[in-house]
Fumarylacetoacetate (FAA) hydrolase
Amino acid sequence: MTYVIDAPKQASVSVAGEEARFPVRRIWCVGRNYAEHTREMGGDPSRDPPIFFSKPSDAVTEEQGLPFPVHTDDLHHEVELVVAIGGEGADVPEERALDLVYGYAVGLDMTRRDLQAIAKKGGQPWDLSKGFDQSCPISPIAPAARNGHPTSGKIELTVNGEVRQSGNLDDLIWSVPQIIAFLSTYVTLRPGDLIMTGTPSGVGPVRAGDIVRAECEGVGSLQVTYVTRD
């Protein structure tokens, strides 16, 4: 295959205990999947169908020092369990959904909240508030074949050592199998897809100089520092 310009570099994430990396195809994000976070964002946590939005594949980053994003004065953290898809399927039954899972990671859905608020008010898309460069810091992926499928466990985020978000995976409104089954009725899930499963309550601002640490019990951890952009 030849192209008229150089092909883009394949986005990828490291895998715990492996030299080979996980190629990233698409990133799907579930909005408002913890009841307390839904309330803090002004929503009703009743069990309506899940809301999905996306980030570009190259939003993933494993860099520990990140430049503070441009065009925002209100950058927010959102810690999430990330599901790495290793199989293919459409209209996947819930009882077979975990067959598609390669592994799990912990990630951050970084959000330019001020831009999101403007978009919401004007009935506009969220893309620039959610899908900007390096908006998805992520830990190495823990293969399910070795670590299993987490259904409970603490998920937590600190900023400069202060706990900001703390929840448990069993608080998810929609479970991982339910998310996979529902999403697969709209799109065919394929190897390389990542699904971010939603964030607990406590989202809040990050400033230049802040150290953000995220951890999901039994899955992994990550730490990033936001620095003033040159």
